[in-house]
Amino acid sequence: QMQLVQSGGGLVQAGGSLRLSCAASGRGFSSYSMAWWRQAPGKAREFVGAISWDGATTNYVDSVKGRFAISRDDAKNTGYLQMNSLKPEDTAVYYCALGYVLGPGNYVYWGQGTQVTVSS
User: Fold this and answer.
1) Most-buried pick from 21, 38, 51, 58 (CB within 10 A)?
2) pLDDT tens digits along 65-119
3) What's the rounded Cα separation, in Å, for the pair 64 and 26?
4) What is the separation of C-alpha 114 from the centre of its chain, rounded to a whole number of angstroms?
5) Residues 111, 97: contact at Cβ < 8 Å?
6) What pLDDT, on a 0 to 100 scale, did the predictor assign at position 1?
């Protein structure tokens, strides 16, 4: 059983940066791919991007390519979402997740979510 605890997030002006962290407790973190999803008010949850179990491959939705970067530190059982050049449309609750896919599929474990608000 894995538990994911998220940190980071908050309020930032458009053009600014934020980094989200996702710390995992339990065994096997390095066996999973890690993904980030987001959900804006009144909208469905959206896949943002993912990193493979070995960190060799990443996959991003077109709207964040070149602005967001996902990384992981298996020694710390932690994954990260670095968000640069933030836009108001990036405002959402962001979730990390662990699974066996590298796209918008089913994930096994989920974080609690953290609010990101981008002001114009």
Assistant:
1) 51
2) 999 999 999 999 999 999 999 999 999 999 999 999 999 989 999 999 999 999 9
3) 30
4) 10
5) yes
6) 86
Distances in whole angstroms, Cα of residue 27 to Cα of each of 45, 56, 80, 100, 114: 27, 21, 18, 15, 23
Structure-token pair, residue 76: 């710390």
C-alpha separations of 5 from 22, 29, 54 in Å: 6, 13, 21
Model confidence over 5-40: pLDDT tens digits? 999 999 999 999 999 999 999 889 999 999 999 999
- β-pairing, 18-25 vs 10-13, is unpaired
Residue with tokens 């973190």: 29
